[in-house]
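A reminder from the course coordinator: this example appears on the midterm review sheet, so study it carefully.

Given structure:
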């Protein structure tokens, strides 16, 4: 049998930022694989490197610029894409030698740039794509992006200027991708977008058939249909609009995970107004109490910003009081960081000193850790279904329905060395900490 001397061009890939950017990277890599390119394991092994950047806050910009510099130092041929690509002057000021710069979601431009500097050598009989496309996550879970962009104009955010207005994917397309992922062995689908609750508004909730039934392109219908796939469905970036209550009913029925990721950001009405947050007038404490009555095991995670321009000590205390009442399971907290182009920069409010921001964040996280520890302690003695993410000697590192990968806690199974990555397991909880649980395989 004659062997081929075909040598595939190799592309290195660096993906920074949020899961939405990770999905963009997966789409680009899937297209490149279809054209015969290989993914290089290191800078030195690559013919060129693509860096998918983040530009949401100053720290992310710095990280992206450092990553570009490292890729240039190690390889020399670098194409830049992603959110920071929408501000090419920042990149060129530091790294004028990059080959090309494209903005977020510019898949075709990235591919054209790769073709220009590293032409493909396509051999259809040798170029195989794994089921479900190229994934940068472990095989047993995957992110499912349902839309691009955002219609909100939060004063601290420049994402709409980078990624544009809301552009929902038709529901049939989304559900077919989800079905393909499950067919490829995925056991958990994490639904992501900039505003998951607004899904389909721009398409006027158009109907499309899936499995012989007309489905409307809207949040509830999507969650209901995904629930038919009989895998874990985890919902992220959900704004607390009234129709979210209907989706909580699906959680009560066990069709989607009892987990809501809601970016509340603050509790002070004045600060929320300055932030231009949508749904700021909702009585969120009453909503949370109602959700917990309907779904006692629901896990609610959120993110908050402290030190927003004009935030007083009294308004920060209001946020702490709100958190004590809300008893959120998982929280993240960021110190306000001015972003070039954000409307908040023009606010006529007194800037909060950095040392005050640091101190407020520390107090916030101390309280959130106390709440988390108290809530996790109640799980001791219970048996939980978990999904195994990795094996570390005799210990398996897993997650329960309350834990999203990378951002939430884990369940350490002390006798889990016999398990395998991607396995389901029943675990009896024996110990808890501020964020994580320990347990043993339930007999």
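Designed residues:
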């Amino acid at each position: 049998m004659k062997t081929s001397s075909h040598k595939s061009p190799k592309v290195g890939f660096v993906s920074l930022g949020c899961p939405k950017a990770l999905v963009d990277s997966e789409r680009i890599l899937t297209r490149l694989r279809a054209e015969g390119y290989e993914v290089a394991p290191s800078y030195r092994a690559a013919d060129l490197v693509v860096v998918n950047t983040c530009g949401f806050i100053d720290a992310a910009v710095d990280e992206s610029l450092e990553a570009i510099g490292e890729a240039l130092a190690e390889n020399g041929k670098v194409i830049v894409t992603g959110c920071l690509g929408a501000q090419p002057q920042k990149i060129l000021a530091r790294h004028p030698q990059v080959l090309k710069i494209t903005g977020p979601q510019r898949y075709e431009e990235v591919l054209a740039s790769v073709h220009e500097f590293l032409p493909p050598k396509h051999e259809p009989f040798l170029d195989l794509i794994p089921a479900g496309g190229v994934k940068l996550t472990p095989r047993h879970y995957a992110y499912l992006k349902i839309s691009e962009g955002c219609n909100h104009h939060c004063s601290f955010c420049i994402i709409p200027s980078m990624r544009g207005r809301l552009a929902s994917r038709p529901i049939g397309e989304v559900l077919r991708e989800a079905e393909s992922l499950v067919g490829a062995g995925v056991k958990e689908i994490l639904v992501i977008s900039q505003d998951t609750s607004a899904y389909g508004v721009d398409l006027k909730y158009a109907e499309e058939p899936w499995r012989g039934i007309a489905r409307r392109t809207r949040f509830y219908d999507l969650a209901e249909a995904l629930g038919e796939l009989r895998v874990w469905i985890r919902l992220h970036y959900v704004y607390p609009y009234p129709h979210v209550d209907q989706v909580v009913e699906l959680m009560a029925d066990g069709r989607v995970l009892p987990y809501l990721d809601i970016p509340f950001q603050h509790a002070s009405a004045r600060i929320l107004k300055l932030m231009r947050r949508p749904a700021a007038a909702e009585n969120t404490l009453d909503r949370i109490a109602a959700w917990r009555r309907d779904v006692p095991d629901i896990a609610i995670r959120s993110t908050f910003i402290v030190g927003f321009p004009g935030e007083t000590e009294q308004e920060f205390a209001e946020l702490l009081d709100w958190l004590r009442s809300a008893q959120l399971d998982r929280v993240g907290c960021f110190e306000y960081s001015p972003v070039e182009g954000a409307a908040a920069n023009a606010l006529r409010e007194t800037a909060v000193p950095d040392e005050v921001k640091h101190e407020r964040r520390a107090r916030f996280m101390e309280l959130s850790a106390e709440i988390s520890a108290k809530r996790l302690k109640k799980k001791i003695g219970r048996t939980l279904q978990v999904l195994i993410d990795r094996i570390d000697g005799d210990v398996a590192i897993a997650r329960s329905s309350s834990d999203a990968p990378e951002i939430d806690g884990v369940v350490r199974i002390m006798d889990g060395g016999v398990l395998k990555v991607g396995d389901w397991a029943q675990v009896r909880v024996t110990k808890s900490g501020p964020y994580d649980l320990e347990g043993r395989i339930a007999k």
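DSSP finds twelve helices and 20 strands in the chain. The longest strand covers residues 383-392.
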